[in-house]
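Entry 12.
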Amino acid sequence: MRATTRATRSNIVLRAARPGECAALSALCLRSKGWWGYDAAFLEACRRELMIAETDIGDRLRVAAVGGNVAGIVQIARDDGDWHVWKLFVDPPFIGSGVGGALMLWALDAARQNGATRLVIEADPGAASFYRRFGAIDAGTVPSGSIPGRSLPLLTLDL
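Predicted 3D structure (tokens):
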């Protein structure tokens, strides 16, 4: 069993990503993905897809901090007319602490403010139930962008 760092709604601070944080945020994404038990080869195959670039920093990427420590990130974007949750990752010590929920609520609000009527989510199989708790429904599967032959749950969430 992994230890969870205590977080409460009152001590989770959502903020913009800062220039120069991309390497640390990318490493967080990989640690979070690894929490599901994937081996080093799998994570290496996912590395490119999980990277945060300087061009990602903007009003559609949020960082969650707890006690000054970066605890998670979320990124939304519009693609082909639909709004997507591209990334939502929580650092393993903060999984189960409310950080993911705070990030998801921000994503829902930000998407609505940008005129979205639904969000599309390509989820890790282990994370699909997290999105379902917010009202996302299964809409099929999509091929993984990193692992040939692997499919991911496709979820949609009406706003």
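Annotation: Residues 29 and 77 are 17 Å apart (CA to CA). The mean pLDDT is 93.
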